């Protein structure tokens, strides 16, 4: 009988452990401790045991009963807590939650991009997007870059084949938009661009630009200047003076580079502005007549301005980021500084 008791002890524990629904726990209880169960019949059989062994065996049987009953109770209360979870996984809804760790947040570049877009939406601009893998025609030809002209080398292009490249600027979206839109139009084109450059503190082979284009009757450079000044005021939060410097782009005439007074030294001259007191923030100009021709706009009916600026650059200026690579390395120690700030 001693052996039977030991067998029941281990078999019972296994049976209870395996019972993963309240009904199975109940079935185990009946088979182990019920009136027709083995323990009951062993207890009944005690009277036929040698009277010398009877007290020890009786005590052991009672102990087994209590142990199994405790195991059964434990099992059914564990299952009761897990109720509502069909997988049978134990789940205590009353426990305090684990604090979230490592939740994502918007990347600072995307936040800056969105806030720049919002400023232009506020001025009545709409938005269009174009492909990053672009036809050479849109990236260069339609933008008045002559074939074999050295201007194509200004921007070191990643070519996919003779006709297809990674866009080096967001300007091709000007062409795509004008091809399908009659003036008047005021649109921005944000997006990623690529240039075959070696990375250093101020260059990256991929970066972000936002392009703006306004076309209507009698649009002038004064409209461009006012748009730029409004943007600078709203984005940098202060009315920093801006200036236009003559420049060259094939798709604008006249062309300018736009500088704003250095945000760090307010024009006095410092390391950030190379002692000039000015920071270049974008390229711009009046849309070249050849671009209007390429998109089929009638001669002389419209004028327009366009500008293109580097999102990385203005983000770096606004937040005092000294190295563009920080924006692409996804180092959480850097990124977490912007959490909840932008
Ligand atoms: N696409 C030019 C660049 O990437 C910027 C630009 C855009 C200049 C629109 C003039 C007008 O450098």
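^ Assign residues to that structure.
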């Amino acid at each position: 009988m001693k052996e039977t008791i030991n067998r029941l002890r281990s078999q019972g524990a296994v049976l209870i452990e395996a019972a993963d629904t309240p009904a199975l726990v109940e079935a185990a209880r009946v088979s182990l401790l019920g009136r027709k169960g083995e323990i009951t019949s062993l207890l009944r059989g005690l009277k036929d045991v040698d009277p010398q062994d009877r007290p020890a065996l009786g005590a052991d049987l009672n102990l087994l009963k209590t142990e199994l009953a405790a195991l059964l109770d434990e099992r059914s209360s564990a299952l009761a807590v897990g109720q509502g979870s069909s997988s049978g996984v134990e789940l205590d809804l009353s426990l305090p939650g684990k604090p979230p760790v490592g939740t994502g947040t918007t990347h600072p570049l995307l936040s800056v991009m969105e806030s720049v877009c919002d400023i232009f939406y506020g001025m009545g601009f709409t938005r269009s997007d174009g492909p990053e893998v672009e036809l050479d025609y849109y990236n260069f030809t339609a933008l008045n870059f002559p074939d074999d002209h050295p201007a194509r080398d200004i921007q070191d292009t990643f070519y996919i084949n003779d006709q297809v490249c990674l866009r080096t600027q967001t300007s091709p979206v000007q062409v795509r938009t004008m091809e399908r839109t009659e003036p008047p139009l005021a649109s921005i084109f944000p997006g990623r661009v690529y240039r075959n450059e070696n990375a250093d503190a101020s260059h990256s082979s991929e970066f972000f630009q936002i392009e703006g284009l306004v076309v209507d009757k009698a649009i002038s450079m004064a409209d461009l200047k006012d748009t730029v000044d409004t943007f600078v005021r709203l984005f940098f939060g202060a009315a920093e003076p801006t200036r236009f410097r003559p420049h060259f782009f094939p798709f604008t005439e006249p062309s300018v580079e736009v500088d704003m007074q250095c945000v760090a030294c307010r024009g006095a001259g410092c390391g950030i502005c190379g002692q000039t007191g000015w920071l270049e923030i974008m390229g711009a100009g009046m849309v070249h007549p050849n671009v209007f021709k390429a998109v089929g706009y009638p001669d002389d009916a419209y004028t327009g301005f366009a500008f293109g600026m580097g999102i990385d650059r203005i983000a770096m200026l606004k937040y005092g980021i000294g190295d563009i690579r920080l924006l692409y390395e996804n180092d959480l120690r850097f990124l977490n500084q912007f959490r909840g700030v932008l």
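The chain has two domains: 2-80, 108-338.
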